Structure formats: C-alpha cells, structure tokens
Description:
- The chain is of the alpha/beta class.
- It is built from 12 helices and 12 strands.
- It has helices spanning 14-17, 65-73, 94-100, 119-122, 134-144, 164-172, 187-192, 229-238, 252-255, 294-303, 323-333, 347-353, and strands spanning 62-64, 80-83, 103-104, 108-109, 152-155, 180-184, 197-198, 226-227, 244-248, 275-276, 313-317, 341-344.
- It has a 5-stranded parallel sheet with strand order 1-6-5-2-4, with helices on both faces.
- Strand 5 (152-155), helix 6 (164-172) and strand 6 (180-184) form a beta-alpha-beta unit.
- The longest helix has 11 residues, at 134-144.
- Mean pLDDT is 86; it is low at 8-55.
Amino acid sequence: xxxxxxxxxxxxxxxxxxxxxxxxxxxxxxxxxxxxxxxxxxxxxxxxxxxxxxxxxxxxxxxxxxxxxxxxxxxxxxxxxxxxxxxxxxxxxxxxxxxxxxxxxxxxxxxxxxxxxxxxxxxxxxxxxxxxxxxxxxxxxxxxxxxxxxxxxxxxxxxxxxxxxxxxxxxxxxxxxxxxxxxxxxxxxxxxxxxxxxxxxxxxxxxxxxxxxxxxxxxxxxxxxxxxxxxxxxxxxxxxxxxxxxxxxxxxxxxxxxxxxxxxxxxxxxxxxxxxxxxxxxxxxxxxxxxxxxxxxxxxxxxxxxxxxxxxxxxxxxxxxxxxxxxxxxxxxxxxxxxxxxxxxxxxxxxxxxxxxxxxx
Length: 361
C-alpha cells in the first residue's frame, strides 16, 4: 500500500513545515488530571417524558446559520444548541469563553477534554480526550438536558475548527445520527444575522459536578466507530492486502517528519502506507468555522490519492483524534457510507509515543 503523498526534500517542504498544525497540540494530561473525582450533583434533564419529541426542520450533517436561527425561534420544541469550541493554543479556552459569554441563547457547553476517559484504569497512557465510558456520557447528556429524541446543533466560536470531534462523539455513543448537526458558521455569523444572544456569566457542565449515585435517564452506548492501536498495526502489517486504509489529517510537514511534533517524546513521520489529507484542505480557507463544499472535499481526497467510495474501511487519524473526526465528517459529506469509516482514537500521539510501532518518513 504505497504512500501517495511523497515526503519531498526539506527545501520543497519548507512551506509545509510552517503551516499551522491542526491536530491537538497541548501537552498530555498531568497526573492530577488523571485522578478520578467523585461526582457531586446533576442538573435535571429538560423533560422526563418518553413521548417528548423534538420538532425540528433541520436535516443533514451540515446546517446553515439561517436554518439554525429559524429552528431556534420556532415555537415548537427546537434543537439543543451546544458550544463545543476547543483550541490548539492554551491561550484560548472554549469553556472559559462560553462561561464569560456571549453565547447562543440557551446554549450548553460540551468539553471534549472533560467528557473523556481519564485515570489510570480507563486511560493508563494518559492520552488526551479519549472516548469516555458510556456511564459518564449518559450523565453528561442528562446534565446538559439532551434527550435521545432531541436534535443537537454543535457550533464553535471564531477560530475554532474542531467541532467535528463532538459531532462524531455524540453519534458514536448512541445519539441518532440524523439528529446531530454541525452549524456551517460560527457565533459571529449567528449574531450578525440576528440570532438571539445570551450574555453574562453562565457555568458550564463539568464531570466533577455530576452525582455518581443517581442513575442516568439518557440511554447511550459504548463508543462505536473507534479502532485501537492494535487494529491500526494490523492494517499496517498487512500492507496492500489489508482490508483498511489509513488517512492522516496532520500537516504535510509533520507527516514527512519535516516539522516537529508538538508533544515531547513523540516521533515524527507517518504510519507506513498511510495517505496524507491535511485538515487545511477540508476547512474553508476564509472561515475556520466552515467546511468546504463537497466538490472541493472530493478534490482534496482525490489529490491525496484516496477514493472516497473504496470498499475498504477507512481509518481516520490525526494528532490526537480531533481532526480525524473532521476527515470522517468530510467523507460522509462526499457521500461515503459512514459505517465504513472509523476513527483511531489514540492517533499519532499514541502511535508516535510507542517505540515499537513502525514509522515511515
């Protein structure tokens, strides 16, 4: 399985090496972060009625700001709006921004770092934002006030291009796929087009504020559409005979080990036989809260040597599992059956830290 994106000499890739790294760049969790904390309290869900239905005109994975405003203003039970802003730089924090406001009126916050597997038992390698256990996900959905019948609109603030991870997580853990949407545009466009805004302080949901003694109402599932390092290693070892291919969303510089990895101890390079589809090729060049049109996405995959309709399973990888979800989203926008696409949750952080995994440069 040859790598299509060749690693060119340094002089040619000097530009690529300076490109913005789009996969997670923060340092791995500290031991304090990995310590399990008991749950303390839980906010009640909006409704406990099994007959409650969320009446929403929204359809499709990607929904416009205008249609979101219309749904928000509807007198019927509209969608739940969720701010899932997350940033590479430690200079900006999505939860802090959400709590300070402004935000979409009534919006909740979903923290991919907090709603994750943590601690020595669940996450012995201390990898960032790994899929959480079902029980934690269910309690968070209750605390946010989301029922399985609800449509959920995920959005981000300016400069955020990582909301696809929350979209993928909700679907992977059991929320109906046709009821989870990404807003095509951010908070600024919402406000500019007359969407209702909420100001003032508002506390976000934290796993530490959940009550461990109360059974969850929301019924979730253990994460599906996720593969482990062993699954990826099997694909690499089987070469051209493998029933899967690997797509990597990191920059070309990192893919070819011409740009340094942002995490200490992580080797540079890529999984043998993998294809490089930089996330920058999937995001609108003028607005990081928007995803390119399907025709442009098709071109990006084609240029990387990837057939979006391949019968082989596609494994999506990146730095730490965030932009891998964007590849999965883009593939589905191109018409690919989502059941044939999975995300490698540990991604390059796990692979590059392991001294025994094979690497090409």
